[in-house]
């Protein structure tokens, strides 16, 4: 038996009257990327939300370092960043303010310089103080990506991270993923884009 930090066993998910999956097992070890694939409605988001501890499976269990994530949510949430479909920004706050709030929710103080560096890295130099409602969809997504840069955690759970991104934005996500994996990080991701990422990449197909 491997000592993979993330382990899901016997997961079952029911939405409405539809059984999306059952008996689903997976593990994730340092340096691994698991891409969850499947058609629209197959249950990718539902699976990622279960793996992120945001919804409960009808059956089965997700464990992080041997502990049930639902009973050890604080520990798990400190080790993981979840990026959902929507960028999750407060419209009236600037990228800097949004990222400070995001860090504060993790009990972390992040100085402005670090946030500004992250924004520059994702191509948002000059937009630091623009309220999020004044950003394009791709700029909002780039702001959300900064959460990966300012919160160093071992596990990234990314639902459609390429949404609204241009070609350079997609390349940026790939680069961030490759660096994360090379540093021993782990990532779970859904995407409708076929993406070649260097590293230990696996896929899970939901039907
Ligand atoms: N809040 C909800 N209540 C009931 N059923 C839901 C709810 N959210 C999603 N579903 C259903 O669950 C199924 C899986 O949805 P999910 O969003 O997990 O799919 P997905 O594979 O991520 O799809 P997409 O590729 O379109 O993002 C769909 O059939 C959907 O209709």
Automatic annotation (TrEMBL):
Domain ABC transporter per the UniProt entry, residue ranges: 6-207
The record's keywords, sorted A to Z, are:
ATP-binding, Cytochrome c-type biogenesis, Membrane, Nucleotide-binding, Translocase, Transport
InterPro entries documented for this protein: AAA+_ATPase, ABC_transporter-like_ATP-bd, ABC_transptr_haem_export_CcmA, P-loop_NTPase
> Is ATP-binding found in the keyword set?
yes
What the entry lists under Pfam families is as follows:
ABC_tran
Q: Which SUPFAM superfamilies match?
A: P-loop containing nucleoside triphosphate hydrolases
Protein name (record):
Cytochrome c biogenesis heme-transporting ATPase CcmA
The organism of origin for this protein: Methylococcus capsulatus
The gene name on file is ccmA
């Amino acid at each position: 038996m491997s000592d993979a930090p993330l382990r899901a066993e016997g997961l079952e998910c029911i939405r409405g009257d539809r059984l999306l999956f059952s008996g689903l097992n997976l593990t994730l070890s340092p340096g691994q990327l698991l891409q969850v694939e499947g058609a629209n409605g197959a249950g990718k988001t539902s699976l990622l939300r279960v793996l992120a501890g945001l919804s409960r499976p009808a059956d089965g269990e997700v464990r992080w370092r041997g502990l049930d994530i639902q009973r050890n949510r604080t520990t798990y949430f400190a080790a993981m960043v979840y990026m959902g479909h929507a960028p999750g920004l407060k419209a009236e706050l600037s990228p800097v303010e949004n990222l400070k709030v995001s860090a504060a929710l993790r009990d972390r103080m992040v100085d402005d310089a670090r946030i500004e560096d992250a924004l520059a890295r994702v191509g948002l130099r000059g937009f630091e103080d623009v309220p999020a409602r004044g950003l394009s969809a791709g700029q909002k997504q780039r702001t959300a990506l900064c959460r990966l840069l300012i919160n160093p955690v071992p596990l990234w759970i990314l639902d459609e991270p390429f949404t609204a991104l241009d070609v350079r934005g997609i390349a940026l996500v790939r680069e961030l993923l490759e660096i994360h994996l090379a540093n021993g990080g782990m990532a779970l991701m859904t995407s409708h884009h076929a993406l070649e990422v260097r590293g230990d990449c696996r896929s899970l197909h939901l039907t």
